Structures are given as C-alpha cells and as structure tokens.
Amino acid sequence: MLSSYLAHLAVERGLSANTLASYRRDLRRYLDHLRARGLATLADVKEADVVAFLSALREGDDQHPALVASSAARAVSAVRGLHRFALREGVSGHDPAHDVRPPRQLRRLPKAISVAEVERLLAACGPEESPLALRNRALLEVLYGTGARISEAVGLAVDDVSHDPGQDQVRLRGKGGRMRLVPLGRYARRALDAYLVRARPAIAAHGRGTPALFLNARGGRLTRQGAWEVLQAAAERAGLSGVSPHMLRHSFATHLLDGGADVRVVQELLGHASVTTTQVYTLVTVDRLREVYAAAHPRALN
C-alpha cells in the first residue's frame, strides 16, 4: 500500500523527490508504530492509534528525537493522505485519521536581509574574472533577482533564459512542475551574459556536454549543495551569518513589497499557488513601517 500511495503522489500529484523522501520516511515510521501496537492492516487502525502516533512524534523515543510542530504536522499530513488513499482504493472501510488535526505551528515571519547587505553579498563573489567567480556572481544575482528557489535555479537550462531583445526573462520550473516566466533585472542579465560568454564555455569543456545553465568545476550540472556552498562562501566573505538561499527569496519578496509592488504580482513571481502564502511577507513590511515610525515620529513613543 505504501508503494502504491507514493507512486500516486509522484505521478498524479507531481510531488518533488525531496517531499516524497520525507513522506516515505514518515510513513515507514508510522507503519512501524502500527505493527508495534499489533495492527496488521490499515483497516484495523482506530483514531486512537493515529493520535498515539502524533503523541509519539512530539515526545520522541530512544530511536527518534522529538519532532518540532512543523515536522510533526508534515508526518500527520502524510498519514492522513495514506488513509484517504486506502479508503478510496477500498483497502479500508473507514478513515481513522479524518478528525486528527496536526499540531498548531507558530507563525514565523520570513527573515530578510537589507538591500545594503544583499549588495555586500553580491560584491563578495569577488572582482576577479575567473570562470567560477563569474558563475558564482551570476548564480547569486539570479537567486536574488528572480526570487527563485535554489532547486529552480540549479534546474535551469541555457534555453530557459530568453535572449530576445526586450524579453529579459527566465523560465522557472516550480513545485509540481508548474512553469512561470520571471523578468530578469539589468544586474542579473549583465551577470548572466558575462558568465555565458566568458565563463561557461571554459567550464563546459571539462564535462561531457549538458544543457544545464549553471555548471560545477567538472562541467556537470551544479547541485543544490554546490549552490549552497557558493552562497555560504560569499556570505562569509561579506561578514554575514545565517544567510540561506531561501533568505534571498524572502528578501526578493520583501524588497518588492517595500517598493510598492502588489502582493498578487509578488505571488506570481514567487510561484505561490495561493495569495495567502504570499501575504505573510506583508507582515514583514508592516513591521518595518512600525520601526521607521517609532524612530522618526516625535510622539511615537508616548
């Protein structure tokens, strides 16, 4: 049943390989939990068994550390999906997880760095004209300039970048295989042109030929881990700590809203399926407005 459900998620829901791996890990732990309670099939499971699993996730045991609310919620979501699938396929006559709710998560505001800090980060790629330095600058300019997820950036092909005059844009493949076109700013366009003309051919000569836009030193596609290391090295040189690829994405959205962009435009640029996901960024800018007001208005503290 587990393999059938995961195949359903991969084919019909289009979940990413990373999400599928997380679901597989969570559900194997769930099935182990059921076996330990003497339950042989999903048809035998009661709501109390699912609730007990949620408690076990939050408390941990000798083999597993206690999970935070967000991780436990993901596991419960996987369990609920498995039981819905079992009911639909006729494997079980009821859904014991229907009324089990995941733990509530604290709403965390996305972290963003300032425009000045972004400029320090980009400058830290180095002025040298080595092929890898040009690649690194192009990569970071694209991450910040388009709000791309790191998986979307390393998944780019050369043909995903428009080379038509007046059509500076890039085609990103988001979650579920959804495609979107995102404009390229002048800085990102300039950095990409420098990389494509003066760096990528030399790097590609070390490999066997790949359509990937961003290459590693051996001429193959740059991995997520490789892109992460590029960012971390630049952040260290810039004197910034805790910078992640997703933080650049947060900064992209926050700076757009600070500049007056409509939240629905930002939603489209980020590739969010729902505007409610994007609206959390507006809280960041409201907080910033409060800070400016408190610092500048003569009666703000009274």
Summarize the structure.
The protein folds into two domains: 2-88, DNA polymerase, domain 1 (Orthogonal Bundle); 115-241, Intergrase catalytic core (hpI Integrase, Chain A, Orthogonal Bundle). Helices cover 56% and strands 3% of the residues. It is built from 14 helices and two strands; from the N terminus they run H-H-H-H-H-H-H-E-E-H-H-H-H-H-H-H.
How would you describe this structure to a colleague?
- 56% of the residues lie in helices and 3% in strands.
- By secondary structure, the protein is mostly helical.
- The chain has two domains: 2-88, DNA polymerase, domain 1; 115-241, Orthogonal Bundle (hpI Integrase, Chain A).
- The protein has a two-stranded antiparallel sheet with strand order 1-2.
- Helix 1 (2-11) runs antiparallel to helix 2 and helix 6 packs across helix 11.
- The protein is globular.
What attributes does this structure have?
302 residues; single chain; hpI Integrase, Chain A; 2 domains; 14 helices; mainly alpha; DNA polymerase, domain 1; 3% strand; 2 strands; 56% helix; two-stranded antiparallel ribbon
